Structure formats: C-alpha cells, structure tokens
Fold this sequence. Notes:
The complex is a heterodimer. In chain A, 57% of the residues lie in helices and 18% in strands. By secondary structure, chain A is α+β, with helices and mostly antiparallel strands. Chain B has a domain of 170 residues: Rossmann fold, CATH 3.40.50.300. Helices cover 31% and strands 27% of the residues of chain B. In chain B, the strands form two sheets. A six-stranded mixed β-sheet of chain B has the order 6-7-8-3-9-10. In chain B, strands 2-1-4-5 form a four-stranded antiparallel β-sheet, with helices on one face. In chain B, α3 runs parallel beside α5 and α5 runs parallel beside α6.
Amino acid sequence: MWGTTLVLALKEIRRHLMRSFLTTLGIIIGVAAVITMVTLGKAATVDIEEQISALGSNVLIVFPVQNEQGIWRPFDDQDIVAVREQIAGVEAVAGSVSSDVTAIYNGQDWDTRVEGVSNEFMVARSVDIAEGRQFTAAEEAAGDNVCIIGQTILEELFVPGTSPLGEQIRLNKVSCRVVGVADSRGIGGGNQDDDNSVLMPIKNVQRRFVGNDNINNFAISYDTNVDSNAMIDAVVDLLRERRLLLEGQNNNFDVIDTAAINETVASTVGTLTAIVAAIAAISLVVGGVGIMNIMLVSVTERTREIGIRMAIGARASEVQRQFLTEAVVLCCFGGLVGILLAFGLSVAVSAAFTLPFIFDPFINFLSFAISALIGVVFGFFPARRASQLDPIEALRHE
Amino acid sequence: MSGEPIIELEGITKTFGRGAAAFKALRGVNLTINRGDFVAVMGASGSGKSTTMNIVGCLDTPTSGVYKFLGNEVQSLSKDQRSLLRRKYLGFVFQGFNLLARTSALENTELPLIYHGMDKAARREAALKSLDKVGLVPWAEHTPGELSGGQQQRVAIARALVTDPTVLLADEPTGNLDSERSIEIMELLADLNRSGITIVMVTHEPDMAEYAKTIVHFKDGLVERTEYGSKSGNGHMHAGQEGVA
C-alpha cells in the first residue's frame, strides 16, 4: 500500500522536477542554515576551549593590578613561598617575570620578550617541549645562561631545517645557549603571541634583565578535589594579608580561574549558537509554509487529475496519502540536499576561519527528522483538501 | 454475447438542492443493461442523461430508487465502497480524454493497475496488451502532447480496458474529435463490443449512436423511448424493454 503511494509520489515529483526543486528550496536553505550554524558554533566552542586550555587547567593565575592611587605592586619570591606552604591543596606555585629584549643570532635581530620561568611554571601553564629539554635543577638553582625558544623565534632567526639546539643566541647583551624549543602555545590572553618569547631560568632574568627579585605573575595548580572558589578565597585572603590591605580596600591583584573562563566562554558560545540556530529554524518553518502553499496550488491545478484517479477507483484515503507522501518526500529530499549543502558550507567556512570541522550526527539527524515532520504537518491540509474533492466536479474542472 | 442483467435501475430519482431551489434531475428512471450490450444514451442537455451516467458509474448516488449492479443493490454504498466497485468493474472514457500530461501512453494506461497493487512488470505487460487492442503499441512511449486527438482517445480506451472491466462507460467519447476520427473510435468501440465488452455511451450525435445496439432517449429526467442502432446489425430485444415509463 505504502509502496504504491511512494511510486505515485515519486512519479509526480519527477513529472514536475523544476517545480519540485523550487518548492523544496525553502527546506534546503532552512536545513542547511540550522546545521551550518550549529556545526560552526560547536567548532568555535572547541577552538576557544583549546585556546583556554593552553593556559593550563585547574590553574589559578595571579597578577597585580593598579590600586586606586595608580600604584602597581608586583609580587616577590616570599609571596610564592607563602602560597605554596600556607594553603592546603596547592600542588605547585610558579612565578614568572618578563622583560622586552632584542634577540640576535647570526647577524639578525628580532624584538621579543624574555620570560623568567621554572620547569614547574611550564608544567602549570602547559608549555610543552617540542625539541630538546627543560632546564636542569642545577641550571634553575644557579640561574644559568640557558634558554628555551618559542616557535616564532625559531622561524624568525634560524634557517629552516637546522637545529637551534646548542646554538648561542644573544638577548640584549646576555648570551645564552638554546637547550630546547617550546611547542606552540597559541594565542594567549590579550592576543599577544605567546610563541614570540624566550624562556630562561627565573633567577637569571631577575638578576640580569630586571635587576630585582619581583614576580610579575604566578600560576597556582591545585588538587582537582579542591573546590576552585574555596581555593580562590584562600589565595585572596592570604595575599590581602601579605599586601597589608585593610578591610574595605580593593584588591590590588587579580586571580583568574582558567576553568571558570572555560565555562563562561563555552556557555556564551552555546547561547549564541542556540539563538542563531533558532533564527535559522524559523526559515525552516517558512520553508514548510512554502511547501504547503505550492501543494495547495498543485491540488487546484491537478483537480482534473484527482478526478481521473478517483474515477478509476482511487479511494479518498489513497488520494490523501498520495499528496501527503508527495509533501513528505519533497521535504525529506530537501532535508538531504540541505545536509549535503551544510556539509560543504561548514567545511568551507571552518577552513576560512581556521576552525576545526566537527561533524555532529545528532543535529544532522534532528534537522532531517524535523524536515520530514514539516512535510507531514504542512502537507496534511492540502492532501485533505484533495481527498475531499467530488469526482464529478473534479472531472469537469477546466 | 447477450446474457444476464448487469445494470438494473428501478425508479431512480435524483434531486439537486433543497426546498424551493430543488431541481429534480431524474424522476424515476427504469433501465436494464445486459451483458454484451452496447447502449447509447441520448438526450438534450438537462434531460438527465449525464446524471444517469454518473449514477451508473457509481460517481454519484440516487436520491431514491434501486440500482442493482450484477444483482447487488449498490445505491447506498459508501464513498470508499463505490471507489472499490469502480476500480474492479468499471472503465471510464471521457470526452476530454483526461490523460495525465507529460506521462507516456504506457504509463497512462498503467495508472489504474497501480491502484490494484500490481507490480511493475505485470503492469507493463497488461498495459502493452491493452494498447495493442487499440493499435497504439508503437506510440507507447509518446506523451499525450505528441499524440493526435484520436490517438489520445485510444490511449484513454486502453486505460479503461486495462483492468478488464465488466462495463465500459464512455461519456461523449467523440465529442472532441473530427468526423473521421470519430468514426475510427466508434468502430473501435463496436469491435470491442463484438469481442464481448459491455459498453454504455453518452452521445448527442445520432450518427455515433447508430453504432450502438440499443439507443435510449432521455427527456425531462425520464427515459422517453428505446430504439435499436442501424449499424450494429443487431436487432435483438434484450435491453430497455421497461425503458418507456
């Protein structure tokens, strides 16, 4: 029974190929829009999550900010020791300090930044070594002239294909030996290029570049079982005490929780995706109305044909089923074409914005199911009208 | 070929509208059509011949009276039951051919078989056999737009015959054709009748009615008189005896 109806519907669609395609265009665009928006939203979320996780996970980053009087007060080694020893659940605390320098190698110079760090800092901030090694304990303790260069430095100063390991580069007037190359860290906070940096033992940078034992910022990694809000409160309380802040005075430092940033951004992108997808879904409904419109016109136009079918013995229910099936088949066809279109669009747009392409089977299936449902809902009324025609009147219709 | 009654109308009336606007299209029609008959129904417009044909074709129901088809009372069948009766026992040929546009002669002929749930190969075979009866096998793949009026009407006849109906109902089958094509179609119908198919045809052209064995004249919603066609070469009294009201 349904096989017969399907045959009839397919014959009918083939008889009016152009019109069928135009009718279903609304559905095609609607489905393609919904899937593309959701797919790109997911891609953006994943991309942002990746960038944020480059900051390290379960990590608090602490840095000084100006107070009301415009005074900027850095941290020092004692602050780090205090955090490490006085707060329960802290696994590692690592400070860093940085200074702008000019790197010179082989007669070429490049403006960059030297960061004084420890191995611990690199672990907390997820800085991986692509080539070579981390600092040794002796190098860290003595503040030796050794460095780990970022990808940008590698590209700018060294001939492609040659190994920088063991080479001496000069940072301002300080000469240092390259012992490692860091993996790309991506774009960090404030859009600065984190790969354009040279990492050296913190003691060396404090002594030879900045001339004091200040700490610009430090990272705290903590036990995953500890609640991040409790951890933040403990850090804030301790630092307020150490920085002699009175009740009512604002913090002259800030604590950033990478996990919280992650959640906030993911939920913001999720909300935006939902809004855009909802707008796209409206076009899907409009597409459904288009189908209903054309099906109604088609019922009028094919009145005589319906009369013929009834005269040769088609029951009202069979005529209704034929028109309903036509609408559903059109919508399913539109859904399939829309999915293909969305695939192409998503791949192209992700590539253009250097986002990862992530195929989401659920949204594809859902959009297809919704377009089929639209066929049923919007095809029902025209189909019912067709089935209620009087065969005698229908045959007389011009 | 004559045999038992296939269609028996007893006191059929049909009233359209209600109250003061009511119009009595049929006022008690009595008519019997036997197996093997070729009946031409004639009459002026408004005489009730089309209404009678619609009732005979189970496209409409009478207001009162008894309609027996193959001995069974069918005047009060539901819409769906009438559809199934048409599907199984009746074949229709219309004045305007009523073929599906942009659809080949073969596919047009196959159409009723789709509702019989027949598979594609069987449909094709039966449709070709039917097109052979009207001499159109070479045109099987042509669409109505590529066929002459006479050829289109032959396709319509092939479509009506494809289900092996008990009765072929033709409503002004030559109404849209010139006289030469009309004669061809009438000779085709006469041939089909000789091979055993019962035909009921509405026409207003006396020349065409002459091909029928029996000619029933309608006037003012009643059967006025019954006579016998001269070209049918058949003068047996097997239809319409009770036709004069």
